[in-house]
Queue: 3 jobs
Job 1
Amino acid sequence: MKKQTRTDSNGRSRITRRTYLTASGLGLGGGLAGCLESTDAKDSTFATAPEDVDSAVVVIWFWGDGCPVCEEQRSFFETLHERDDVAVLAYEVYNDQENQDKFRDVVETYQLPNEAVPVVFVGDRYWIGDSEQIRSGIESAIDQCDENQCSTPRLLE
């Protein structure tokens, strides 16, 4: 099979649409892969320890060090953690075997569609990924739980 090269009117090689789309897809896939695997651990000092949970609303955040979506979401959880009525339990799952095991149990228990992070739980509700709509849903669930005393996520029972 011959390799075909396309050139422009000046005789220079140019990128074909197929090559461009393939490269774009690989780049996108590589970026998302950061949400599936990493090697470095980051300190999650803003999070509440499970034994210190005494607030009205518990938010559980499974995240991965090196996941760009998780990193974007981090400041949102730092802000939530500052609220007196919220306890954020953050579980880094790439570098902590105990957290990985807990996350696998959660994936199985809640029948999540995949093992990608970030995943957030408030009461018996959960969200996968990050968007303004997801953040709004999390805040709404926190407010509802604050008013109506939601159950603690089954993960802590």
Job 2
Amino acid sequence: MERDFFKQYVDEHRDAFESEALPPNMLGNILGNLKEREQLKAKKKMKLTYTWLAVACSLFLVAGAYLFISQDKNVIAGPKAQVASNTSNAIKQPIIHTQETKPKIKKEIVNKPQRTIAYHQKADPYKEIFKGLVDSSSVANRMDAIIKANALASLNNKLKIELCRTFSKDENDNVRLAALGILAKFSNDSYINGQLVESLSKQKDPVVQLELVKIMGSNSNPETTDKLIAMANNPFTVDAVKEQVYYALLTNK
């Protein structure tokens, strides 16, 4: 390329080269033209390089845009196919009818307490009365036993004996007087009547004597009459008792 340049330059300035005297700054002009040519050559190369780069960038952009558009189409087309497939699957699936089931409520079984009839053995009333009558340590217990005996409709032989003993020998006047009240209810009993007749000469308390005369004053038994006369003639008998004895003897005739 440099030889062609020199040859062209020589042909253009042949007259100058044929002259014996070289024009001034001939070499400088040659070098200057050479330098300008090199610069033009470099500019052309650079322009060509830029051109190719621009073309390459354009191609790259076109290719990228194509790929982007094609990818978007695939993405858009994908869900449609999926929706279609889902639709087809939904149509093919059988319809299952679900029936609402109410939760079963368990009824609590309440075990009602069974009523059991307790058969308590009846306490023996005579046993409790006997126990109270012989309790010498408590007047209240003896009085309670006499009250229980008074509620009985009848007396057995053992209780008759025990009540007569209490009336004759208990140290408390109130207990003896309470026992006399029960014996008076059953005074027609031969055993009780005989014990009361004997008590006319044994009882020394005026209150007990007065109540005893009232009970036995209507008895016309000769033994009873003798006991009453003896009480009236006894100097230790109080006047109130004597008056009751006289009244019984007069009304008993």
Job 3
Amino acid sequence: MSGTKQTRPTTAADTYRQRRQTVDALLEELRGKLDAHAKRAATDPKNWGYAGDLGHVEKVLRDLAAFTR
């Protein structure tokens, strides 16, 4: 053990800040995964599955965008 104690957020602002950092990290991870997906799709341009994958991603992102307005 390192001897440092992790503290829980004590205010709504602290919780918001921590969750915003997590969301930002997830968005960055998603960008990387989309880039990797695009590379795989480029190797198989006749495969409609990749387009379908992005259709699903688009729908989920639109739902999230509507939720956070």
